[in-house]
Amino acid sequence: METNKAKIRQFLSRHFKSQELKDDDDIFALGFVNSLFAMQMVMFVEGEFGIRVENEDLDLDNFRTVDAIAALVEKKAA
Length: 78
Prior knowledge:
Layout: H1 2-15, H2 35-49, H3 66-77
Domain Carrier: 1-77
Protein name: D-alanyl carrier protein
Pfam families: PP-binding
């Protein structure tokens, strides 16, 4: 899971250059995410981890934090 978190942090850091995120920081509450970036995150998760994000997975809670994204990846990969 730590490897997945590292990949997720690396992706997010390319977009939030001036912000160092903790794994439990809510990127939506911090105002970093708009609808276009939300779709980019979904595309990154699918491409990077070889999983399919289904409609029922498109819940903000699955994408709010590095921890949440990593948990979604683990669940979908199982």
